Amino acid sequence: MGVPEEPRKPEEQRLGPVLRRREQIQPGTTDQRLLDTEGDSEWVHTDPWRVMRIQSEFVEGFGALAELPSAISVFGSARTKPDSPEYEAGVRLGRALVEAGFAVITGGGPGAMEAANKGAREAKGVSVGLGIELPFEQGLNPHVDIGVNFRYFFVRKTMFVKYAQGFVVLPGGLGTLDELFEALTLVQTRKVTRFPIVLFGTEYWKGLVDWLRDSVVAGGKASEHDLLLFHVTDDVDEAVTLVSKEVGR
Fold it and tell me: What does pLDDT average to over the chain?
């Protein structure tokens, strides 16, 4: 019985769109490597695999939210207490936004986010929560009807802006400030147009507004016109009117 002939090494190799020649030719085929169960699992922590995860989050988010009606994203602290005036304002805001014809999108967590979702659900509107994977994550609040959990902050931020016609920002901490300044930057640089931003709670936001005017604008780091990119109010009806007016409702 003859000895099987040793397969000759090809002169070139095509792996999808990639062409390899000479010393760069890899042994085996793509299917062979896919079906091979041997080897370590370190590859699931590599950057190419992360790209696939990021892509899948965008696909899942777009798929879940593409058919939403006009929506407003509501931000605020997860630490807002259920018995506080801020929580009650969030409930009234969520309810009023639904009555004005909007869906309500929040970060899906407790506190102010839960309040807005609760108001939206009580008004029989669309209540959306976009959660994020955190070490102390508490899960989506029970008033969310459509929920999507994300691994990556930047994917989640895209969903907040892409599927909302405006922002209402309740008193909050660093995460709330992050979302606020992200939105302000997008409007200032005209990455988005006709995007109203309403800060709810004049006393809470007064220090920030004063700093923007007296330090940032006065120091030439922003223009006077940038102070017109947002509104400040204590009135739920006025907040809803402002976002409705600017989006042409």
Answer: 89
Q: Which residue shows structure tokens 């909050």?
A: 172
Cβ–Cβ < 8 Å for 106, 73: yes
Token representation of residue 106: 């929040």
Q: What pairs with residue 128 in β-bridges?
A: 105, 146
Label residue 111 left, alpha or beta by phi (over 0 means left) and psi (-120 to 50 means alpha): left
User: Would you state the pLDDT for residue 97?
Assistant: 98
Residue type, 62: F
3-state secondary structure of 49: helix
156-193 per-position pLDDT tens digit: 999 999 999 999 999 999 999 999 999 999 999 999 88
Distance CA 142, CA 211 (A): 37
What is the per-residue pLDDT across 40-81, written as a single tens digit (0 to 9) for each?
667 667 878 888 888 999 999 999 999 999 999 999 999 999
Helix (H, G, I), strand (E, B) or coil at 148: strand
Nearest CA among 235, 167, 226 for reference residue 201: 235
Report d(CA 121, CA 119) in Å as an integer: 5
User: 139 is written with which tokens?
Assistant: 């899960």
CB atoms within 10 A of CB 220: 7
The token pair at 93 is 């805001």
Cβ-contact 130, 109 below 8 angstroms:
no
